[in-house]
């Protein structure tokens, strides 16, 4: 049996174009979201919560041994620049790799976890959103293996 030849629906020609526009619009929407650096509050906020977390860690009995003999202001600036860079900010981190910077410190998992908790608390105090805080910590998590030695 031979079916009669039918003409395509007039909208069939524009369907592929509509599909492309739809997918492009969805992809573009994700790119409209501000960079993590901005979601964290910008460079000033990153500097503030970093400086406070490092100052606390330098005084806390659970973590202070790793800060002995360290120029705290230089370390705070270096860590803030690193976090800003990780968050796609305009900063330039010129420090060592995590492995080189921490290799001789014998930082334990417990010490690392305390510092991460302090960083979380200072981000909370700076009113950083949960989503931005979690994204920064997600990006930093792989560095744990280069920092913790035991």
Automatic annotation (TrEMBL):
Binding positions for heme per the UniProt entry: 102
Molecular function (Gene Ontology), one example: heme binding
Listed CDD domains: TrHb1_N (cd00454)
Signal peptide range in chain numbering: 1-29
Stored Pfam families: Bac_globin (PF01152)
Gene3D superfamilies cross-referenced by the UniProt entry: Globins (1.10.490.10)
Statement: the UniProt record of this protein carries the keyword Signal: yes
InterPro entries: Globin-like_sf, Globin/Proto, Hemoglobin_trunc
The keyword Transcription regulation belongs to this UniProt entry's keyword annotation: no
PROSITE patterns per UniProt: PROKAR_LIPOPROTEIN (PS51257)
Keywords, alphabetical: Heme, Iron, Metal-binding, Signal, Transport
Name of the protein in its database record: Hemoglobin
Source species of the chain: Aquabacterium commune
